[in-house]
């Protein structure tokens, strides 16, 4: 049985989604009327690491409800993961196509090759924008960095297929109208390598429609046949399956995976997030004690109502716990006839007292909060975030402090660039198949560059970049990217328009 989850998978997913006290869907037992008969109180707070009464204690349920009401957390784990993702995918990556064949010195692609490149880039640019792939990539990055991977499943709805299941032919400009990308849950999808044959298989758990309505679980399996063509097979829970027609996708599976060496959210990150949550909740409850003081009255008769029952004195700022001024003691003694008898006697308390419960000194709690926060940032290579409140720290010092962060982002960037190249080639091959011209773009290859920038470049840095460009070390397009220009191509087009429409400037007079 293949599984793509581990003991931390669900917990990491819950923490990223903000469910840090307990799982997103704790167990609840419902009666015939649909109302809950019992609730899994332990499940509701299974991630809580602070002290609680034993679950067998009759007061446990009320304590859980009080904890759920007062629970406070700050999702530093998500903040750190998003910071890493922003370092790679906050700015849209630069990509384009060139010829696959090696070019000699000063050799350029032929006119036919240039025309083919423009055609493919136009098709993919339209599809890229229409599907908002930068947004999808950013979402995939957060999950992939946290878990170490994120499957990406291509999908073509049935309306883009004919009655026999083949892709309907379309002109180039509409050839990718039917191609969508989805992000399955990491626990339900992934690429599995057979340890014996070393062949890769893509597996995704799906909800398959059932005749008459409803759904049931099934699997989508993608593999390569003996000729290297891609096969997609839908498998029902009964083991029955149907194969799609073979597609020539250049040896690619019908499932992509953005995979890193390991996930950034490890056990120590989760442990420190738990400690942070306990500290924040404790600080909040401590503040509540300061806002609504509690009073304990000892040796004071409680007020009674007309029926002789104790009147509760509860409420914000008025909670009182009263003890009777008379203590009753029961003692067992031996009577004159030798029988055991109970003797009851009453005695007065030596005095009355009024005690107010003051909040604890918050310094220790705040120190625990600060330490847990610093630990999370440190594990996620972001200690520079702890400099936010240090106004005297120089910009250069901040850059030095980001060294480990920049190295981590650079590692992620290399993997993301390879993933985008695979994605673009998959889309290019699908486009060629839909056009009825399989392999049309096999002579081209994508070139991808992720923009990794944490700080805006300084004036000195831009001067250095300009010198490198003038010396022929970097291109003008690279210079514009380093200077922070989001779209160098659009910037060049705007420059050309301004030069073409501006009035001619008079020549300087000698």
From TrEMBL:
Residues 155-167 have a biased composition (Basic and acidic residues). Residues 153-173, 487-510 are annotated as: Disordered. This is Uncharacterized protein.
